[in-house]
Amino acid sequence: MDELVFYDTLRQALWISVMISTPILLVALVAGLTVGLFQALTSIQEMTLTFVPKVGAILIVFWATMGFMTETLTAFFTDRIIPMIGGL
User: Fold this and answer.
1) Which of 25, 27, 68, 70 meets the CB 3.0–4.6 Å disulfide criterion with 61?
2) Residues 76, 13 contacting (CB under 8 angstroms)
3) Region 13-40: what's the mean pLDDT?
4) What is the DSSP string of 46-57?
5) What is the pLDDT of residue 86?
6) CA torsion 56→70→1→7, rounded to 10°?
7) DSSP state of 79
8) How far apart are alpha carbons 63 and 87 in whole angstroms?
9) Where do the H-state alpha helices sit in 1-88?
10) The whole model's pTM is what?
11) Nearest to residue 72, comparing CAs of 27, 19, 33, 32?
12) Domain limits, the chain
């Protein structure tokens, strides 16, 4: 395998991983900031209060974007990885 092909495939794989993880990470950030602000304003320092809403929001976004993630990964593997394995 040529070095340029390897690095280009690696670059595309990293970009796809960024695209796939961005919605979940953004929701985790927003939920964490919201809960942290709520805790700072009300002086409630409960550990489960930070964990449960964030996990719930992440699960909802994961469920909502699962189709996009699957389509993106499937397209990458069928268009890029499988032809490289087959030697095409």
Assistant:
1) 27
2) yes
3) 94
4) -HHHHHHHHHHH
5) 85
6) -50
7) I
8) 35
9) 3-42, 47-76, 82-86
10) 0.79
11) 19
12) 22-86
